[in-house]
Amino acid sequence: MLEAFGKITQKYRNVGLLLVGDGPEKTELKKLCMLKNIKGVYFVDPRQKEELPIFYGISDIFVLPSRKDAWGYVINEAMACGLPIITTNMVGAAYDVVKHGENGLIIQDCTIDSLHGALETLLKYPEQKLREMGEASQRLIAPYTHKNSAKKFFEAVCSVLTHSK
Fold it and tell me: Rounded CA gap, 72 and 133, in Å?
């Protein structure tokens, strides 16, 4: 992601990459930014979940460049906050809530070139198109409430019990 963003900053000047959270590689990522002279990357310490909407709110695009993630719940959060999504086909949520071209882009591999291509695609869109994608995200994620999830789980258990007799 950092190297893809570095390529983006060579063409687009008014962009920034916001990384919220922590992890064992944070120091190495900061070093990579310095080594490769990648500007406009902001590392923010972990925040409580109540504070996260502030960071989604100052963002224009959400990227989850995961090589493996059973779901990727942060996608739900970003969609609820009205953001277009870029993620990989290795994130479970990609197939259930991200509609390629409607509310985001699903890339087939997590490489510098594919991430760069997806970022550049969305950055070329007019502001109105990004807003429409964000609205589509909110519409698509709306049914994914705790209540609906519990209802679907209950229905699935009842179905299994009914068919196992």
Answer: 19
